[in-house]
Amino acid sequence: MVDEKVAVAVPLLMLAEKEENADTREFFDVVKGVTYTMNFPELARKLCLGVGIPGWLFTVDANGNMNLFHLNSRSIIELPHMDTLKGFDLDNHRGYLERYVDKAVLSSDPHTTYGYILMINQGGARTLAYWIPGKKGFISVETRKAAYADVTWHDGQFYGVDVRGNVIVFDFRGGMEPTIGKVFQGVPSESICGMRLYIVHSSGELFVITRDGIETNPETKLYGVEEFIVGKVDVDNESYEKVDDLGNRSLFLGFSASLAVEQYGCKANHIYFTDDCTLTFDSSEKGGGKDMGVYNLFDNTIEPHYAGESYHRFSPPIWIFNTPNFSY
Questions:
Q1: Taking the mean position of all CA atoms in its chain, how far away is CA 79?
Q2: In sequence order, what are the beta bridge partners of 47?
Q3: In what order do the strands lie in the sheet with 182-185?
Q4: Tens of pLDDT along 98-140?
């Protein structure tokens, strides 16, 4: 989730890399219905994740090299190698490196502040680790009740949610470098079995969202979301309340940092989602890209946001919150 003090640009769907032309990327404007094309050889054959700050992407290649890349300026920030992550073993994880990280979130824009923090969700066990400029490696978070599902930033703190519905708060205020967080049961455990979880901070409120349909249906042999459930979590009172009305807000969920927006022509009370059902699409010949659309919180209907096909075995379409330097 992007810091609310940072201006959020128009949400664009960055389509998956095409095998026959890996240097070129397409960006679909879901509001205007227009596709833009740009040459980005810096992204070829890499996992790309949106980090919640306009223009920035997190990338990983097959050799474990990790970078931050800015679409407009083409600035590259080299991150410590994957072998600085606790528990990483190159021999055991070779062939899996592009899938080793599934979430990356920046606290602020590296172009405007040196004191930014990058938090990633990584490894088969899905643990959190963060990097601060000047550090030689990533710092591992020790607090873990279960595999982490998502993480967001707000006002000096990272908020994580794990697959059991626990919410974990890490306080970085005052220059702290925490490895221990405050844990509480954010989502009732009976509400999360077989679900994908996301966490979003917006306008002073913290939301945890569940998504079903992440596993193959034994009858239809297909996977795909049928329902999203949004809940508001009160950190101070450690309470949870289901929410049916987000006001003017729309949610953007998937492999990118989870985000709430209130403008740009997006449909209020809708969830714009991309395919992040990794364990399911890993066994698909096409890869990920099937389970995308726009979910209406009022009537639980789903409509497409992109009419074409866009698949990739490890880096399917993602949301970016920026307009690169296109020629309109």
A1: 18
A2: 60
A3: 148-154, 157-162, 166-171, 182-185
A4: 889 999 999 999 999 999 999 999 998 999 999 999 999 999 9
- Tell me how crowded residue 303 is: count the other CB atoms within 10 A of its CB: 10
Tokens of residue 217, six digits: 């249906």
pLDDT at 220 over 90: no
d(CA 27, CA 20): 17
What are the helix (H) ranges across the chain?
90-93, 278-281
Nearest to 299 by CA among 241, 244, 231: 244
What stretches of 132-227 adopt beta strand conformation (E)? 139-140, 148-154, 157-162, 166-171, 182-185, 196-202, 205-211
Which residues, other chains included, contact 69 with Cβ-Cβ below 8 Å and sequence gap of 6+? 42, 43, 56, 57, 58, 59, 75, 76, 77
The token duo for 244 is: 């049916």
SS (H, E, C) 89-148: CHHHHCCCHHHCEEEEEECCCCCCCCCCCEEEEECCCCEEEEECCCCCCCEECCCCCCCE
In the chain, the amino acid numbered 183 is V
Are 272 and 255 contacting, i.e. CB atoms less than 8 angstroms apart?
no
pTM of the model: 0.92
